[in-house]
Design brief:
Layout lengths: L7 E3 L1 H13 L3 H18 L21 E3 L1
Parallel strand pairs: 1-2
Length: 70
């Protein structure tokens, strides 16, 4: 996975869905890696908000310092 962040945590619900989606969309793993390396780097490392990242409330994410990808 990406070297930009110390670690990336996926929600368990996403892991289950991702497993199914990887079978249907062969480029999904590469697409997620690109998203993390480009968009999340802009947003979390450089503070540039180009409107591509949406905060979703009530996901149970309690550590804003750690990156959790829904």
């Amino acid at each position: 996975m990406s070297k930009l962040f110390k670690y990336i945590t996926y929600l368990p619900e996403f892991e289950k869905d991702k497993k199914k989606l990887l079978k249907r969309f062969r480029t999904l793993a590469e697409d997620l890696e690109t998203f993390i390396n480009v968009q999340l780097k802009l947003f979390h490392k450089f503070g540039i908000d180009n409107g591509a990242v949406e905060h979703i409330n009530d996901l149970g994410i309690t550590k804003p310092g750690s990156l959790q990808v829904p």
